[in-house]
Amino acid sequence: MPSRVWMYANYHCNIQCTYCLTESGPKVAQRALSPETMLAVAEQARELGFTDLGVTGGETFLMPHMPDTLAALSANLPVVALTNGTLFSRRLLAKVEHLAECDVALQISLDRPDADVNDEMRAPDNFRKVTQAIPDLVERGITVRIATTVESIEDNELDRLCALHRDLGVPDSEHIIRPIVRRGRADTEDLGVEAVASDLPSELTITDDGAFWGPFGPTVKDGVLDTDLLVTRTTLPLETPARALLGLLEGRPEGADSTLNIR
C-alpha cells in the first residue's frame, strides 16, 4: 500500500502561479472538501494502514477551518500541508499556533533566492511575504518545509537559496527540490517535463471530483479537469479507491514511480 493519502482541500487560490498544475487562481471555483470528509478520509486511511496524510490545493489557508482541521487530521496520522505562505497575518498566525503541538508540517513554496526572479513565476510581492512568514512560523515552533519547483537552477543560485532558507530557520533536511511537471498551466506555458503515471508518485489523492493517481493527477487545463490519472469517481469509503489503486500497481516493482524524483 502506498504510504500517503493526499487531499485537495480546495482549488481556488489568492495567487496565480505560472506553472500551477490546477490552474488555480482567485476566480477559480472552490471545489472544496468539507472538514467532515477530510476527517473521514484521515480516519479510514489510518484504519487501512496508510502512514501519512498530505493536504494541498489551491491555497489551503483560504479555508477558514483549516487550522483546526489540520490539528484534527494529525490526531490520526502525521500531516504535511502545502501553502504558498502569503496569508500569514498576525490573526492567522495566532490561529495556527496550536499546530506546534501537533504532528503537522507546513510546506511553503520558495523557488529562487532573488525576489524579482521568484515573483516572476509566482506573484508580485510573493518573496517578501514568504520570507516574512517562514521565521514567524518557525518562531512559534511550527515545522516548516521549503519546496522549490524549478525547470533548472544553477549551483550558485541554489547555494544562495539554501543559505537563505537556513537563515530563515529551515534546515537542509526540510528542503526539497522538484521539477515543474508539464500539466495544467505549465503545459499551456510550455514549461516543465512530460510525465506519465510511471513517473509520478502512486499516492492515493482524494478530490471533490474523485480519487486520482497521486497529487499530480487531478490537474486542470483550459478549465477542464484531466482524467487520465483518475482511479475512481468514488472517494468514500476509502477502501474502494485504495483497492483500485492497488490493482493498478500490481506487478510493479517498488520505487518504479520515482523516475523523475518527484516527491
UniProtKB/TrEMBL annotation:
<keyword id="KW-0479">Metal-binding</keyword>
<feature type="domain" description="Radical SAM core">
    <location>
        <begin position="1"/>
        <end position="215"/>
    </location>
</feature>
<dbReference type="Pfam" id="PF04055">
    <property type="entry name" value="Radical_SAM"/>
</dbReference>
<protein>
    <recommendedName>
        <fullName>Radical SAM core domain-containing protein</fullName>
    </recommendedName>
</protein>
<dbReference type="InterPro" id="IPR050377">
    <property type="entry name" value="Radical_SAM_PqqE_MftC-like"/>
</dbReference>
<dbReference type="InterPro" id="IPR058240">
    <property type="entry name" value="rSAM_sf"/>
</dbReference>
<dbReference type="InterPro" id="IPR013785">
    <property type="entry name" value="Aldolase_TIM"/>
</dbReference>
<keyword id="KW-0408">Iron</keyword>
<keyword id="KW-0411">Iron-sulfur</keyword>
<keyword id="KW-0949">S-adenosyl-L-methionine</keyword>
<dbReference type="InterPro" id="IPR007197">
    <property type="entry name" value="rSAM"/>
</dbReference>
